[in-house]
Amino acid sequence: MIVIILTACPPGLRGHLTQWLFELSAGVYVGHVSARVRERLWSRVMDMAGPGRALMVFQVRGEQRLSFVAHDHHWTPVDVEGVTLMRRPVGPVINPAVAGGWSKAAKRRRFGRRGRSPHAGDDRDQLG
Questions:
Q1: In principle, which of 21, 47, 48, 107 could form an S-S bond with 29, CB 3.0–4.6 Å?
Q2: Which residues contact 46 (CB under 8 A, 6 or more apart)?
Q3: Cβ(74)–Cβ(89) below 8 Å
Q4: Which run of H or of E encompasses 66?
Q5: Of 58, 43, 75, 81, residue with least CA distance to 4
Q6: Residues 37-41: what's their mean pLDDT?
Q7: CA dihedral of residues 22, 36, 16, 9 (deg, nearest 10)
Q8: What are the pLDDT digits (tens) for 45-91?
C-alpha cells in the first residue's frame, strides 16, 4: 500500500496518478501497487512536480513496516539505526503570505516596553 501527498503540483500529475491510485482528498492518493509500479510513479512525480512538494509513504519489510520519500518537502526522512523518522526543519518555515511577521500594533507595544529604562519615572537618582 502507498500514500502520496501532493502540494501545489500541476493538474497533469494528478490525472496521471488517478490511473493507478484512488484520490481520497485533494492531493492525497492511496493505492496498492507493486514495487516496480511504485518506483515508476515516484519518478513520474519527481519529473512532473515542478515547484510543488510531494511525500510518499509506502509499506516495506522491517520493524517499522513503513518508509518515506520526499520531494522538495520541508520535512525530510532520516534513517536512525534502521528506523525512518521525519526530521523537522531547524528554523521556522516562513510562509510567504505571512512574511511580514508581527502586526504594527504588536511591534509598537513590544518595542515600547523595551525602549524604557527599568527605573523610568524613579526619582532615586535625583535625591542625593
A1: 21
A2: 54, 71
A3: yes
A4: strand 66-71
A5: 58
A6: 91
A7: 90
A8: 888 888 888 889 888 887 778 888 888 777 777 888 877 777 877 76
In this structure, the number of other CB atoms found within 10 A of the CB of residue 78 comes to: 11
109, amino acid identity: R
Q: Which residue has the cell 502540494?
A: 7
Predicted TM-score (pTM) of the model is: 0.60
Cβ contact 53:4 at 8 Å:
no
Q: Which cell numbers hold the place of 70? A: 520526499
CA count, 13 A, side-chain hemisphere, 127 = 4
Q: Strand 66-71 and strand 53-59: pairing?
A: antiparallel
Q: Please, which residues bridge with residue 55 across strands?
A: 5, 70
What structural domains does the chain harbor?
Answer: 1-89 (3.30.70.240)
Amino acid identity of residue 9, one-letter, is C
